[in-house]
Amino acid sequence: MALNNVKETPDAETDVLIVGAGPTGLTLACDLARRGVRALVVEQSDTLFPGSRGKGIQPRTMEVFDDLGVVDAVLASGGKAPVGMVWEDGSRQGEHDMFERPGPTDSAPYGEPWLIPQWRTQQILHARLTELAGGVAFGTALTGLSQDTYGVTAQLSTGTAATGASTIRAAYMVAADGGRSTVRAILSIAMTGESVDPAPMLVADVRIPALDRLNWHVFPGGSAGYLAICPLPGTDHFQVVGQFAQGEPDTSPSGVRELIGARTHLAAAEVTEVLWASDFRPRAAMADRFREGRVFLAGDAAHVHSPAGGQGLNTSVQDVYNLGWKLGQVLRHGAPESLLDTYERERLPVAAQMLGLSTRIHRGEERRGAATMQLGLGYRGGPLASGGAGALEAGDRAPDGPLPGGRRIFDLFRGPHFTLLAVGTDSELPVLDGAPVHIHRIEAYEPYGKGLFLVRPDGYIGWAGEDTSGLAEYLVRCC
Description:
With 479 residues, the chain is of the alpha+beta class. The chain has helices at 23-34, 59-68, 71-77, 118-131, 182-187, 253-263, 312-333, 341-362, 370-373, 409-413, 471-478, and strands at 14-19, 39-43, 56-57, 79-80, 84-88, 91-96, 114-115, 136-138, 142-147, 152-156, 167-175, 191-195, 201-207, 216-219, 227-231, 238-243, 273-280, 283-287, 291-292, 295-297, 303-304, 386-389, 392-393, 418-423, 437-442, 451-455, 461-465. The protein folds into three domains: 14-78 and 116-193 and 284-373, 3-Layer(bba) Sandwich (FAD/NAD(P)-binding domain); 80-106 and 198-281, D-Amino Acid Oxidase, Chain A, domain 2 (2-Layer Sandwich); 386-478, Glutaredoxin. Strand 15 and strand 16 (238-243) form a beta hairpin. The radius of gyration is 23 Å and the shape is globular. It starts with 13 loop residues before the first strand and ends with a helix.
């Protein structure tokens, strides 16, 4: 939905109001802050989310975190996913690796999923946001909103430190407030989907000193439903996931202990602490649209799914990685407002693909493999993909690779700018006065081939060609 290229909101107190301080909202806030975009995050809870829920970070999301300056902290706080150990009648039946592990390469430096509890990921992102002079208004819920040609007016449950008022005016709003999104409900945007599994699930964080941390322990469970206990790297915690083919989950500490005692060789008393627990029903559903005027839906507010395959947090982070640079271009560089229309056009098909993949993995129809690592996702044929050269087409992910002096191609991309790569070619380069484009020549490199490649701020090829024909016209659409 275009809004006639109106970029200014004269009475705005912030450029972007972000509702929700989960990984989605915090990632977007970090990205906007480094672009000089004023953003306010409001979170109805008094603290960051305390559980491990989205614990698997896929290689493509690690690349996003690399760009945002948090990957070192994520690496230091997590670890590789342990190999599964199947148990039956109190005995180990053998190992079963739930993942394909191709390992790092020059073009893809993060070669397998990285486990880190969601609460720790959020702490890292929140710390990065603080470094960038941003912050979160905790204990502040959205209670209503209205919008007009110039912006969005939000009603909040309490005044924020930024304004002291319980009403705030923003140029745009982003709903990052989860599967039960208040924003989506206010806008009456429907979710269309299906039940993935009629059996409810329990997820909990526990301490079990008597259980080894060398494996991801799997208890098939028969007619009662399976149970899995995964050690969480960087902590002394385990994440417990249990299926309830019969009955309903009891998320109380005693209920979690009784579940583990009933389905494993462990005694209930060996669970020394239950730190957090929740229940859910696996469902795959997607919002009918990702945009309503000046309000955007992202993450679980836009799509919910089974946690199988570890796609949720990752797809959510990549939603706002797609949206953040577009908001920055419109708000700070005068790009046409129609650029924001491409968010839904690019991300909705990706979300639909992710929902299908998660459902197939949940039902045992597909194994966690290359598709779950998300390195193959892209925007070929999309509204911001133009041309091709060498080994790549516009819309493809831009590969990493080594450069002289110990640098890497990703080092050239890091930051909020576009990057024009001249790879193995002496083609004349343009003078781009005022455009946020960094230009580099590098030697011919097989994952690229030869040619000119304009890399978007989110690491995808926007335009490619043998010479600069069409480049200036493309930049007008984005810059």
